[in-house]
């Protein structure tokens, strides 16, 4: 099995999830290559202890990402940093010739994203993808196959979103995601929006225009000293898009929601497609349950399929076992490695978001900001 040596830039939650996925690589049954972390970078050394304890093969620890990029052992990097650092670090990694998995939104704003794409255009030998794991849930993969086989019929309406309630508590201390200089003006949309866009974009459904509403619900939060400081970013966002199906030329409404304050939601990615032949509903709130309504006349009855561990990239886990978030992350990395080696994903909906898809999300999110400020429908 081929080995691709990685550098990890950013040792927070998602950096540790990547490391855990590399340790579980034996879980995949037909992978032709594997990632190995040989270098890590973090501004503060605190997280290094966990990596030293669990990954003795790591040979470089540094607080300067440029030192990591200069390491000739490192062929690829995973950059899991706050949004304001994407442009600088992504571009430097690309110029250093390192294959790149970057966190969403792939730049704090549209100009930052355009700079990253320009660097990729100038360095065509660098492979790059955007991290988003939720499309790899088995139910979402089944929906993707229905789309591929044109079994839905004419699309009537699409609803996607990412909902959770981590900011419902007004006493939760402020963090970087609540500060514009670090998270960006998109707010919750930059933090969560790419997840809600992945499947519609991969289906080829392109928004023509958008009408957006943003909400700031909790205006201040306590800082480290307990003082109330402004909470600058948008908590919730709702986008309504007139969207085109390129196969038929028909248009339909697509509603996209990203909410950090959604009472009753823990961390839910959801998708609903209403269509003339087959309609579908799925949410990670109930990760085994895929709802289907197949209509050919007569009564309209929603049915239910219990999905198991039926994955795009086969694993040792039995098909009847439950699938979870860490499994989706492993699938995402399997997709990255296979597409890097083979030049294409295993299936149309079994690939990570592309730089072009990330760029489309930026155009949509930028138009959404204009729409909210002007109370108008904005064309893309």
Describe the structure.
The protein folds into 2 domains: 2-130, NAD(P)-binding Rossmann-like Domain (Rossmann fold), CATH 3.40.50; 134-323 and 352-379, Dihydrodipicolinate Reductase, domain 2, CATH 3.30.360.10. Helix content is 30%, strand content 26%. By secondary structure, the chain is α/β, with parallel strands linked by helices. α4 (86-95) links the parallel β4 (76-79) and β5. The strands form 3 sheets. Strands 16-15-14-13-7-12-11-8-17 form a 9-stranded mixed beta sheet. The protein has a 6-stranded parallel beta sheet with strand order 3-2-1-4-5-6, with helices on both faces. The protein has 10 helices and 17 strands. The mean pLDDT is 97. α4 (86-95) runs parallel beside α5 (110-122).
Kindly state the percentage of residues in helix. Answer: 25-40%
| Rg computed from alpha carbons, rounded to a whole number of angstroms | 21 Å
- Poorly predicted spans: none
Average pLDDT confidence is 97
Structural class: alpha/beta
How many beta-strand runs? Answer: 17
Strand percent estimate:
25-35%
How many domain regions? 2
- Considering the protein shown, what is the CATH homologous superfamily of the largest domain? Dihydrodipicolinate Reductase, domain 2
What is the rounded distance between the termini?
Answer: 45 Å
- How many helix segments? 10
- List SSEs in N-to-C order: EHEHEHEHEHEHEHHEEEEEEEEEHHE
How are the strands ordered across the major sheet?
16-15-14-13-7-12-11-8-17
Q: How many strands, what sense, and barrel or not for the largest sheet?
A: 9 strands, mixed
């Amino acid at each position: 099995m081929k080995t691709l040596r990685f550098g990890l830039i950013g040792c927070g939650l998602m950096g540790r999830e990547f490391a855990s996925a590399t340790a579980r690589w034996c879980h995949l049954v037909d992978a032709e290559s594997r990632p190995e972390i040989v270098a890590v970078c973090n501004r503060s050394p605190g997280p290094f202890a966990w990596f030293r304890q669990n990954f003795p093969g790591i040979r470089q620890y540094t607080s300067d990402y440029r030192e990591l990029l200069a390491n000739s052992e490192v062929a690829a990097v995973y950059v899991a940093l706050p949004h304001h650092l994407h442009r600088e670090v992504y571009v430097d990694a690309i110029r250093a010739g390192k294959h790149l998995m970057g966190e969403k939104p792939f730049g704090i704003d549209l100009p930052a994203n355009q700079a990253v794409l320009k660097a990729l255009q100038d360095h065509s030998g660098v492979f790059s993808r955007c991290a988003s794991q939720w499309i790899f849930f088995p139910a979402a993969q089944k929906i993707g196959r229905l789309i591929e086989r044109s079994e839905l019929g004419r699309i009537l309406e699409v609803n996607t979103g990412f909902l959770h309630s981590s900011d419902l508590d007004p006493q939760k201390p402020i963090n970087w995601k609540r500060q514009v200089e670090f998270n960006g003006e998109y707010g919750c949309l930059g933090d969560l929006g790419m997840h809600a866009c992945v499947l519609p974009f991969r289906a080829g459904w392109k928004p023509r225009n958008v009408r957006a509403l943003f909400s700031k619900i909790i205006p201040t939060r306590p800082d480290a000293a307990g003082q109330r400081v402004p909470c600058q970013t948008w908590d919730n966002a709702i986008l309504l898009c007139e969207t085109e199906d390129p196969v038929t030329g028909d248009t339909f409404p697509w509603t996209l929601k990203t909410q950090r304050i959604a009472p009753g939601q823990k961390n839910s990615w959801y998708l609903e497609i209403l269509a003339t032949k087959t309609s579908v509903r799925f949410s990670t709130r109930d990760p085994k349950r895929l709802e289907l309504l197949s209509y050919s006349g007569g009564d309209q009855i929603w049915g239910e399929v219990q999905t198991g561990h039926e994955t795009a990239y086969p694993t040792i886990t039995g098909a009847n076992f439950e699938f979870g978030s860490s499994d989706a992350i492993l699938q995402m990395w399997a997709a990255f490695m296979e597409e890097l080696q083979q030049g294409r994903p295993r299936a149309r909906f079994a690939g990570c978001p592309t730089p072009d898809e990330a760029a489309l999300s930026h155009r949509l999110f930028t138009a959404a900001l204009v729409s909210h400020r002007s109370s108008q429908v904005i064309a893309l």
